[in-house]
Design brief:
The protein is an alpha/beta fold and about 290 residues long. Helices cover about 30% and strands about 20% of the residues. It has a domain of about 200 residues: Rossmann fold (3-Layer(aba) Sandwich). The protein contains 12 helices and 10 strands. The strands form 2 sheets. Strands 2, 3, 4, 5, 6, 7, 9 and 10 form an 8-stranded mixed beta sheet that branches. Strand 2, helix 4 and strand 3 form a beta-alpha-beta unit. Helix 2 crosses helix 10 and helix 10 packs antiparallel against helix 12.
Length: about 290
Amino acid sequence: MGGVPDANGPEDVSTDRDVTPPWESDQREVLRATFDQDAEAYDRSRPVAPDDVFDEVMQRASLSAGSTVVEIGPGTGQATRHLAARGLQVVAVELGPHLAERARANLAAFPNVSVVTASFESWDPGTACFDAVFACNSFHWIDRDIRFVKAATVLRPGGHLVVLATPWVVPETADRFWWEVQDDWAAVGARFDPSTMHPDLIRDDLAPAVRASGVFDEPTTTRRTFEVTFTAEGYATNLSTQSGVKELPENARAELIAHIRQRVEDQGGRVTAHLLAMLTVARRARSLPPTNGA
């Protein structure tokens, strides 16, 4: 989090800031591929929602051990582990070959998981139908013209779309670090007011899009905040994986990360970030309109 939107979240959520998210820019295809550039850093530094959020996934999507799930954009498998540990049969569809390779290694202990290297748009499910389509901080990167239709098409009747987003937020109780660090962002031309990232200002734009798609029943969304504490090096690594940071010129990017790393070191070597877990679930509509394919 900083002066630019974090590319790992949120799903269609926004604040009152006039900032075009990377996933809505004309560089979407290029930017979503950048996550694959350093799979090791992504694996080490990307936070995942608390375990009980995945209990809620199971309950709200009517899943149990043996249920089948296709996961969109698993990255290196951070969320996939939680699904697999609950006995779900998971097909994880990952665009980035390096991320997919790391996910296979991370998930090798789970025979109930297979990782496919493909974009969700190009992935061919054959005749398979699933109990759920799950996406954690990835659904917003999928082509808006087909994401709902294809998700609905691969679901069995009564199956669910499950979208988890974990945008970074700044509640009033947050450490002053999140205000002071804006000086570092200002130096690269990306300062903003952290008060605009208050959890109450994060709007849910996914549920209206689900309704408008015509292929799902009424969605429900729950919200809860959680905290993640980073070391200075861990937060610097996380910054290096964010597409908004990757967009900066190389010298500015290196300078920004170095300054922020030092700022964390100067305040004791740790910083606590706040995230908002937004879980949207919608059941596939009883009947789907005819299509010419996903």
